[in-house]
Amino acid sequence: MQTNPNNPYDEVFGNLSKIVEEIVRNMPEAEHARVIGYTIVTRHVPGEPGIFTGGLNSGDDDIPYEVQESDTQIFITAAIPPDAEHAPYADIKKDTVRICVDDHSTTIDLEKPIDIIHSSYRVHRGVMDITLRKIPDYR
């Protein structure tokens, strides 16, 4: 896993990964157990992020995802099918995000506009993490 020298959580994530591996290894029937990706979101402002789930069972072609929102950012985590033939990608627009895997896609409508330039996505071990920065409301 690539580490970022400016991220104080990188060491914590490595340790957490080792702990989870040890837990799974000691579970009954551990040879069939798998942990496929995880996302940990921390906040630098007081309060809890709002969480809502979307993309569930609205169609066979939908890619399942979860959305978490803070005051300044939106975090989307999507499960990538293990049989994907091509690299998945996120098409990030000001008011929508489209997750594309092969011939399947899921469009997520955003309630607030986002800053496209300061938004990004990453795919790692079957999980797509999308981080969107909200455009501040100066009213």
Largest sheet: 5 strands, antiparallel
H and E order? HEEEEEEEE
Distance, first to last CA: 41 Å
Question: Radius of gyration, Cα only, in angstroms?
Answer: 17 Å
Shape category? globular
Oligomer: single chain
Low-confidence stretches: 52-58
* Average residue pLDDT: 77
Backbone structural class = mainly beta
Strand content: 35-45%
Strands of the widest sheet, in order across it, are 1-2-3-8-7
Query: How many strand elements?
Result: 8
Helical stretch tally: 1
Query: Roughly what percent helix?
Result: 10-25%
Plain-language structure description:
This protein is mainly beta and 139 residues long. The chain has one helix spanning 10-25, and strands at residues 50-54, 65-69, 73-79, 89-92, 96-101, 104-109, 114-124, 127-134. Strands 1-2-3-8-7 form a five-stranded antiparallel β-sheet, with no helix packed on it. The protein has a three-stranded antiparallel β-sheet with strand order 4-5-6, with no helix packed on it. A hairpin with a 3-residue loop joins strand 2 and strand 3. It starts with 9 loop residues before the first helix and ends in a 5-residue tail after the last strand. The relative contact order is 0.16.
